[in-house]
Amino acid sequence: MRVIFGDSRNMKEVEDNSVGLVLTSPPYYNAPFDFPDLFPSYADYLSLLNGVGKEIFRVLEEGRVAVFVTADVRIDGELYPIVADLIKIMQSLGFKYQERIIWKKPEGYIRISRRSGVLIQHPYPLYYYPDNVYEDIVVFKKPGKFIPRNKEESKIDVNKFQREKWYLSVWEITNVLPNNKYSKYTAPFPEELARRIITLYSYVGDTVLDPFAGTGTTLKVANELKRNAIGYEIDLELKDIILERIGVNTLFGKPQIEVIEREDAKRLRTKLREKIEEKLQNR
Ligand SMILES: C[S@@+](CC[C@H](N)C(=O)[O-])C[C@H]1O[C@@H](n2cnc3c(N)ncnc32)[C@H](O)[C@@H]1O
């Protein structure tokens, strides 16, 4: 397993056509309670997606997929169409838009803001603001024919597939709750989500890459599912968290972790947390 601290617009440590699956969740633009003012403009944000997308295309094996977990972001009442823009960018880079799955979170665990109360105060048309309980899981395929490996070992449990309704394009999975140790560092996705995606879209022994590793959810689950893992994360302040999270003994032993700290790594988390606290107080 490799963790590289640096900007994933440049993944020079990864060879062309060597990655079996990309699973990632990019920052949610300048989402007020996760990444306030991280990007100078929306155009800068889209340019990041384009830069990383280009590198993903280079490193992915033919016929394999890149899976993005993301959502449109609302800032000062306005929605930014991140999912639509991501799809357009990835298509322009040569990917085929293959699948869109809705990740539905349970009601009651809304993390950021409840908007629906407005209608109860003003029960009239045009006061409707629904609470958001979903994110998109968008799957892009690099053209070509995929080569399976370790087929029998990678076999999918069909009973589980039926029982847990993996066959539907809506997945109901509980999100990482605000009291979880890792949710205060970045916006992690649940291990169950990573487990499903890695099981369905990669083979044992493949390399799974996460260009926005955050707290290392993809890396941890990839290791548990006997895949190799490579993560890029720009924020050096997450280093201890990632290493603590993925360095534990699993059923398959303690992973060997190679850590690279590049010159272009940054220290972001403390500054972001200060801004989040400020926004929470002014709410
Ligand atoms: C939504 S979080 C990922 C959370 C992750 N899926 C998890 O479960 O913990 C996005 C991450 O991308 C990182 N990031 C932002 N820009 C980056 C860049 N240019 N290169 C690498 N990482 C970047 C952020 O620091 C943040 O930790």
By CATH, the superfamily comes out as Vaccinia Virus protein VP39
Biggest sheet strand order reads: 8-6-7-3-2-9-10-1-11
Query: Main β-sheet, in a few words?
Result: 9 strands, mixed
Q: What sequence of helices (H) and strands (E) makes up the elements?
A: EEHEEEHEHEHEHEHEHEH
General form: globular
Radius of gyration: 19 Å
Say what the CATH topology is: Rossmann fold
Kindly name the structural category.
alpha/beta
Strand content: 15-25%
Average pLDDT, all residues: 93
Count of β-strands = 11
Q: What is the number of helical segments per DSSP (H or I, 4+ residues)? A: 8
What hetero molecules are bound to the protein chains?
S-adenosylmethionine
Distance between the termini: 41 Å
Keywords summarizing the entry:
nine-stranded mixed sheet; 283 residues; Rossmann fold; alpha/beta; two-stranded antiparallel ribbon; globular; binds S-adenosylmethionine
